[in-house]
Every structure is written in C-alpha cells, then in structure tokens.
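Q: Got a minute? One more chain.
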Amino acid sequence: MNTIIHKANERGNVNHGWLKANHSFSFANYYDPKKEQFGTLRVLNDDVVEAGFGFGMHPHNNMEIVTIPLKGALKHKDSSGGEGVIKTGDVQIMSAGKGIMHSEMATTDEDVNLFQIWVFPKKVNIEPRYDQRFFDEKDRENKWQIVVSPNEVHNALWINQDAYFSLGNFDTATSYKLNNENNGVYLMVIEGEIEIDGNTLTNRDAIGITDATDFQINVLQPAKLLAIEVPMK
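A: Always. Here it is, folded:
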C-alpha cells in the first residue's frame, strides 16, 4: 500500500470575503505541482459561501462535478434545465459533458459550507445532465454509504466514470474495501480523528491510498469520513 498525506493546514486557501475556500488540489490562483490531481480526481474544494452570495452563471465542459453541502443550502440552476436547492444531507452531481452553464448561490438564510469535487469523465462530450438525492445519515452509522456510483446497484447517483463516493460516520474501527482493485482512494476526514497505516489524521486532513485492495481504519475519535475512489489512469 502506498500513501500520500495532505494535511488540512497545507491546502491552498483564498478569502474573498463572501467566499472562503480551501483547495486540496491546484485550483485558480493556487498551484502546487505535487497537488495537480489524484488519478482522475481533479478538484476538492472546501468552500464557505456567505448567505445570499455565490457563483453567477459560468461554463464547464467534460467534467463530473459533485457537490456535498455540509451546512446550509445552495440554489442551483443550469442551462440543461436542472434547477433546485441542495441542503445538508443531499448530494448533487452534474455532468458538464459537451458544455453547460450553471450558477450556485447560497440561500439568504445562512452561510453554506460545501465540498465541490471534480472528476475527469470516462466518456467525453456526452449530453449534460443534473441529478440530486437525499441520503439519510442514519444509513452511514459505522458503515459506508455509497452516494455516487458508476452503476445502479447502490441506489446512488450515477457518475460518468468508474468512481465511487462513500460517506461514513464511525465510532469504532472499520475498513474500506475497494469496489475496483485498479482504483485508488482519496479519503478526507470531515471531522474527528483516525489512524491509517501509522498516519494520524484529523479534521480536514486527507490521505491518498494506492496499490491496495482494502485497508484498515483505526478510529481515535468519532469520525465523519468521505472516501473518493477513482481510477488512477
């Protein structure tokens, strides 16, 4: 098993007042040649958007974009006709495909904290698409809840890539078994404290794991985890 550690305090960050963002990978004006991507995982932004503010209409193409609100609610609208509000507990996916315009705005009620994650697609220039779904947090207590998947067997959102996103809330030791042994896993500690392969990780620390079909996770403090399993080529 090979690992790479990304500590929370080593992420790129920006403060625009209405937007406070932390970048796990090179993004916008933040560039680190050692953090351009992890396999087909290109972006993991940890954003706080001020209530009533957000991103106006802007374009994307040939990218799978997953949004996971951690606090608050976000209004979405895109040129494919997709429109809705995603709240804590929801997961949203958008296939930018051959080209799409979209906007994202925090509701006026409260600031929103979200993960926005970009994955390179398996097939390019597909028709743009949008989907969102609520996932009950009770279904991830001391187990992995698959929320994004390339197939329909997990009751998860479909992604145009051989990738799997899983959420889990653990207060006891656990393990992760890869769905595809050729993939790698980028595991983010949303909150809590864990230990993997001798590495202690706490709030917003992350570890990239390759060349393993499964791995053990020792839970030092109750932890909320996000596992992003992606092809490495």
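A: Residues 60 and 100 are 6 Å apart (CA to CA).
Q: Perfect, thanks.
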